[in-house]
Amino acid sequence: MKKGLLIVLSGPSGAGKGTICQNLCRQLMGIYYSISVTTRPPRRGEKDGVNYYFITEREFEDLKEQGGLLEWARVYGNYYGTPRYKVEQRRSEGCDVILEIDIEGAKQVRERCEDAVFLFLLPPSMKELRTRIEGRGTERPDIIKERFSTAYRELEEIRHYDYMVINDDIQEAVDIIKAVIAAEKCRVSRNEEILNRLLEEGGIR
Amino acid sequence: MKKGLLIVLSGPSGAGKGTICQNLCRQLMGIYYSISVTTRPPRRGEKDGVNYYFITEREFEDLKEQGGLLEWARVYGNYYGTPRYKVEQRRSEGCDVILEIDIEGAKQVRERCEDAVFLFLLPPSMKELRTRIEGRGTERPDIIKERFSTAYRELEEIRHYDYMVINDDIQEAVDIIKAVIAAEKCRVSRNEEILNRLLEEGGIR
Questions:
Q1: ipTM score of the complex?
Q2: Which residues of A touch B182 (CB under 8 A)?
Q3: How far apart are CA B156 and CA A57, in angstroms?
Q4: Percentage of chain B modeled with pLDDT above 70
Q5: CB contact under 8 A, B176 and A166
Q6: Residue in B closest to A197 by C-alpha
Q7: What is the β-pairing status of strands A31-33 and A6-10?
C-alpha cells in the first residue's frame, strides 16, 4: 500500500482555508481532513468532532506530554493541535491527509515529516483580505487588527512553503490544489517501488 | 510577463513520448513543442519543420559551434539538438516549452536551466515496452535490441528526474502532465513577483 500524502495548508485568516478544504474534501475521494483539537470555545455553528475537538487545557497538556500531537500552537491565547495517531493511520492506509494549520504548526510538521507538501493560500490582494476579515463580523476590532498585522508578517514565511495558491475563485483554487496532489503523487522520490519493480523486470536487480 | 515553464520529457523508445506530446499540445493552449534539429534521415511520413528540422552534419556542427544548441546528443549514430533561440524567445513571451529529448540531452539542460521541470515517461511494464518497440516495425533487429538494453540502463537515470509518468492510458498520462504544469506554475520559487506585490500592498516594503 503506497503511503498517502500529507498536505499542509496555511494562510492568513480570511484567505479562505476552511472553504477551500471543505470543497476539496467534497470533490476528492480518499482525502482525509484532519480535525484539530483546540482549547478555544466553539464559534456559533461549530460542532465538536466536525470543526474541532473542543477540549480543556488540562486535556491538551496531557495529549501533548504523551507525544500525541504532530504539531501544536498557541494562537490568540488558545491552544490548537493535530492528533498524530489518526494522521499516521490514514496515511498508512493510502489515504491523503490535509492539515489546515498556521505557520508555527507548519514549521513543526516540516521538521517531523520530510515528505509533507506545504501550500500557502493567499487572498488576491491585501485589500480583499481586509474586506473578508471585516466581513466575517465575529471578532472584536482589536482581534481584527491583530489578524491583519499577523497576516502581513506571515507573508514573509511563504518562502518556506512549496506552493502558493491564490484564492480569487474558489473552484480555481481547489483545482490547483488537486493538480498539486496529482503531481506530487508522481514525484520520482515517492515512487521508489514502481522503479524497483521495473528494474527487476528489466533484469537489472 | 511571467516566464513560461521549460518542460523536459524523456523516456525509452516505445514509452510513447511522441503521442503524449502531440496530445498535450493539442489540448493545452500556450504550449510550444520544441522541434529538434537532426542529422538522421526522415522516417516514412516525417516532415521537415514538423517532426524535425532535417539538416546535414556540417550544418549541425556550425549551429553547435555558434552556441545555438541548448543541448545535443548523438543517438544511434545520428545527431540531435535543440535550437536554443526559439526556446528562449517563447519562454520570454510567457509560453511554456516542452522538449522531447533523451537522458543525455536532459543532463545538459539540467546544467544550463535550473528552473526546468524534468519528467520521465514510463511504459506500464518492460514486457509492454518490448511489444511496443517490436510493433513499430520500422527498425532492424539489432537496433531493436539496442533500444531494449538502452531502456533498461536508462531506468537508473530516473532518479535525476522530478516526476515519473506511467503511460498506460494516453489521456491519463496527458492529464498527469497537465497537473504537473499547473502545479509547477504555483511553486513559490516561481512567484517572487506576486509575493513582492502583496508585501508592498501590506506596507512591509
A1: 0.89
A2: 175-176, 179-180, 183
A3: 52
A4: 97
A5: no
A6: B125
A7: unpaired
Confidence band, pLDDT 50/70/90 cuts, at residue B205: very low
A71 CA to chain B: closest CA distance, Å?
23
What is the set of domains in chain B, with CATH numbers?
A: 6-34+96-201 (3.40.50.300)
* Tally of CB atoms within 10 A around A91: 20
Rounded Cα distance, A108 and A67, in Å: 13
User: What grid cell was written down for A148?
Assistant: 491583519
Residue in B103, B159, B73, B50 with CA at minimum distance from that of residue A199:
B159
Blockwise average pLDDT, block size 10, chain A, 205 residues: 94 90 93 94 93 95 94 89 94 96 93 95 87 76 82 88 96 98 97 87 61
| CB contacts, 8 Å: B164 with chain A | 186, 188, 191, 194-195
In the block, cell 506571515 appears at: A154
pTM: 0.90
pLDDT value of residue B203: 62
Reading the block at residue A39, the C-alpha cell is 482549547
A50 in B contact zone (CB under 8 Å): no
Q: Which strands make up the sheet holding A96-100, listed edge to edge?
A: A31-33, A96-100, A6-10, A117-122, A163-166
**pLDDT the model gives residue B153:** 83
Is A183 at the interface with chain B, CB within 8 A? yes
DSSP summary character for residue A116:
-
Q: How many CB atoms lie within 10 A of CB B127?
A: 10
Q: With 60 as the cut, is the pLDDT of residue B106 above it?
A: yes
Buried b (16+ CB within 10 A) or exposed e, B90-106: bbeeebbbbbbbbbbbb
Round to whole Å and give the CA distance between A4 and A94.
4
Of A164, A180, A182, the CB nearest to B191: A164
Are A76 and A12 within 8 A, CB to CB?
Answer: no
Looking at beta carbons, which residues of chain A come within 8 Å of B187?
A: 162-163
Residue B61 to residue B59: CA distance in whole angstroms: 5
* Residue whose C-alpha cell reads 513520448 in the numeric block: B17
Q: Do A202 and B178 touch (CB under 8 A)?
A: no
